[in-house]
Design goal:
By secondary structure, the chain is mainly alpha-helical. Helix content is 76%, strand content 6%. A hairpin with a 5-residue loop joins strand 1 and strand 2. Helix 3 packs across helix 4. The longest helix is centred in the middle third of the chain and has 58 residues. About 3% of the residues have low confidence. Belongs to the GSP F family. This is Type II secretion system protein GspF. It is a multi-pass membrane protein.
């Protein structure tokens, strides 16, 4: 059976929308007629993602991070409570607030009822459920601990979302200050400086060098601002195209790991993702080589991903995981030491969770330190620029006042 989205009219002329399960669209229309409804549209639940109609509805045709976390948590709770998977998916479909989520759950349920595994059903929707998500679900099905794995996966998604939100909020204030400062400086150069310049021109007085430079900059801002925007757009486009190439992207990511201040943030963020994912995979019973490969896919830094590939080769040759990761000289020593302790005690999963929690707290601390350092620097920079503009305006006035006296 498959899931079909329908639109129908009841006896009072009211339009109803929903999702039903049927062997075909024709069978679905028959079901609606037996319920006293006149079918208008009966189409596969996933078909709205294609065609002209689907293009109009493309906005929002994807699970948000929040929705993914909520669905995963609900799935885990219902499965641990003993509810069968098909009934669990049916419950989630019925209580979904958004039409897309309702159709998505109904489509997955139809695949499961049709005999496919849960992971296989999720693979039909790669935009909503990435490869690492499906790998964890497959591991849970294989070990018979799907509910437990989904519970840990929900924890991971929630913690990851919370960490991203904290980092974004920490950098929001410096970003706002930068935008306001840029706007004030642009206003001074494009409006205030030209107004004062007219007074100086009428006096035919020789202007100080700082004032002449400021007037030239003001003229550029007023007449050539569009050229600056075009140049910035071209530079951004070229940078993105260059970084799409494997060689330049790898070189950039290697530099990012050693960049002052930001390098530790990049390293810490990727370490948290790697340790969390590897901990979930090992807890689900996934073989270490497959777990390392899947955890490496979560890394956004190509240089660290390359180091994981080297570690996989070393582990395959018989090297311990801690020694293989230590030889990469990329991950924090704390992670390597905790993994070594886990290998000695036979509980690597717990040590990976501790490493992830510790590195997450350290990442938050570094982020707060960086933003607390940026805020006064931005204010000082803004004050310095305004001071230069004020001096450029006041110096001719002071000289003119001296001549009058």
């Amino acid at each position: 059976m498959s899931a079909f989205r329908y639109e129908a009219i009841n006896a009072t002329g009211k339009t109803l929308k929903g999702v039903l399960e049927a062997d075909s669209a024709r069978a679905g229309r028959s079901q609606l007629r037996t319920q006293g409804l006149t079918p208008l549209v009966v189409e596969p639940a996933a078909s709205r993602a294609h065609g002209a109609r689907g293009q109009r509805l493309a906005l929002g045709r994807k699970l948000s991070q929040r929705e993914q976390a909520i669905l995963t948590r609900q799935l885990a709770s219902l499965l641990i409570a003993g509810l069968p998977l098909d009934e669990t998916l049916s419950v989630l479909s019925e209580q979904a607030e958004r039409d897309y989520v309702r159709e998505l759950m109904a489509s997955i349920r139809a695949e499961v009822v049709g005999g496919h595994s849960f992971a296989n059903a999720l693979s039909q929707h790669p935009r909503d459920f990435p490869e690492i998500y499906r790998a964890l679900v497959a591991a849970g099905e294989h070990t018979g601990k799907l509910g437990v794995v989904l519970s840990r996966l929900a924890d991971y998604i929630e913690q990851s979302n919370a960490l991203k939100q904290k980092i974004l909020l920490a950098f929001t204030y410096p970003a706002v200050v930068t935008c306001i400062a840029f706007g004030i400086v642009t206003f001074l150069l494009s409006y205030v400086v030209p107004q004062v310049a007219n007074v100086f021109v009428s006096t035919k007085q020789a202007l100080p060098l700082l004032t002449v430079m400021m007037l030239a900059l003001s003229g550029y801002v007023r007449h050539w601002w569009w050229a600056t925007l075009i140049a910035v757009a071209i530079v951004v486009w070229l940078a993105r195209r260059i970084l799409e190439q494997p060689g330049p992207r790898l070189a950039f990511d290697r530099w990012a790991l050693t960049a002052p201040l930001f390098g530790k943030l990049v390293r810490g963020y990727n370490t948290v993702r790697f340790a969390s994912t590897l901990g979930i995979l090992t807890a689900a019973g996934v073989p270490i080589l497959r777990a390392l490969q899947a955890a490496g896919e979560t890394l956004s830094n190509r240089a660290m991903h390359e180091n994981i590939d080297d570690a996989i080769v070393r582990v395959r040759e018989g090297t311990s995981l801690s020694r293989a990761l230590g030889n990469t000289r990329t991950f924090p020593p704390v992670l390597v030491h905790l993994i070594r302790s886990g290998e000695a005690t036979g509980d690597v999963t717990t040590m990976l969770d501790r490493a992830s929690d510790g590195e997450s707290r350290e990442l938050e601390r570094r982020t707060m330190f960086l933003t607390s350092l940026l805020e006064p620097l931005l204010i000082l920079a803004m004050g310095g620029v305004v001071l230069v503009i004020v001096l450029a305006v006041m110096m001719p006035i002071i000289e003119l006042n001296n001549l009058v006296q």
